[in-house]
Design goal:
This protein is mainly alpha-helical and 283 residues long. Helix content is 64%, strand content 2%. The protein is globular.
Length: 283
């Protein structure tokens, strides 16, 4: 148990060395991935990576490829099952924070699975090893967040400032705004794919400049709302790992947003310069 000297105004003291180490690893890996996106080194699930891949033909031939939809199902399902298990089989009815946190995690990954099945439009495929790697990342992060929450409610004193109710509002704002803009993207991809005028370019065939909602101000409002949702998670949890995960995710999605805006600028000559990457009028 960490010393009670830890400042507990708004965060539980780290419950174990393992949680502290995982917090550092999570933040560092996510932040590095974000900086890599800015430098042009993209994760293999990204459309940008497909354009910049340096894999040889022999390496590509050894890959097991699956559909993008199936890949994303593999990515999210274990994390969803972990959060659902924490809610159904280890509910800890006496602790409202744990119940809220497990419920929000379950809703978050259920939403993602439903979007994969009914909302998102896909082109191309995904390497199976990439899907498994991302799946393990999501599952590990989810399981660690749940474990950290369990340790803190059994070992640590409550933070002096309770953020769980503002966290619920941020989570609801984030998940609803993220879904709405995913829906707008899906409608755009659907109409774009059926348009014969886009058949001239393989790069732009399935993409248009997004319109509607906050797309009028930023390229990636769905990432902005995803960050808001993860900040909501961290406020509900108030554990060191949840905050590290939220901040690391913010760094990564900021890098993805920057790369996305750069891609649109390169593909569309008349892309509006006043449209920012992530934060309206600022970034």
């Amino acid at each position: 148990m960490v010393s009670m000297a830890w400042p507990i105004l708004f965060v539980f003291p780290p419950a174990s060395v393992f949680i502290t180490a995982m917090s550092v690893i999570c933040f560092t890996a996510s932040a590095y991935a974000g900086f890599s996106e800015v430098r042009g080194k993209h994760l293999e699930c990204s459309k940008f990576w497909k354009n910049n891949s340096n894999q040889s033909d022999s390496q590509k031939s050894k890959q097991i490829n699956i559909s993008s939809r199936r890949g994303m199902q593999i990515t999210y399902t274990p994390a969803f099952l972990a959060s659902l298990t924490s809610l159904v089989f280890f509910p800890r009815y006496g602790d409202i924070r744990y119940l809220l946190f497990s419920s929000c995690l379950t809703i978050h990954f259920l939403k993602r699975l439903l979007e994969v099945q009914f909302v998102h439009k896909y082109s191309g495929g995904m390497a199976l090893d990439t899907a498994i790697f991302i799946c393990l990342s999501y599952f590990t992060s989810t399981a660690t967040m749940i474990y950290a929450q369990h340790l803190n409610i059994t070992q640590g004193p409550e933070p002096q400032i309770d953020l769980k109710y503002p966290g619920i509002l941020l989570f609801l704002l984030g998940i609803s705004g993220n879904f709405y803009h995913h829906y707008l993207l899906s409608r755009m991809r659907s109409s774009s794919s059926s348009s014969p005028s886009n058949s001239k370019s393989n790069d732009v065939m399935d993409y248009k400049i997004p319109r509607g909602g906050l797309f009028e101000l930023v390229v990636c409002p769905h990432y902005l709302f995803e960050i808001i949702g993860f900040v909501g998670f961290s406020f509900i949890s108030q554990t060191l790992y949840a905050f590290a995960f939220a901040v690391g995710t913010a760094f990564y999605l900021t890098g993805r947003s920057y790369a996305t805006r750069r891609w649109y600028l390169s593909k569309f000559k008349h892309f509006p310069q006043n449209v920012k990457a992530l934060i309206p009028y600022l970034l």
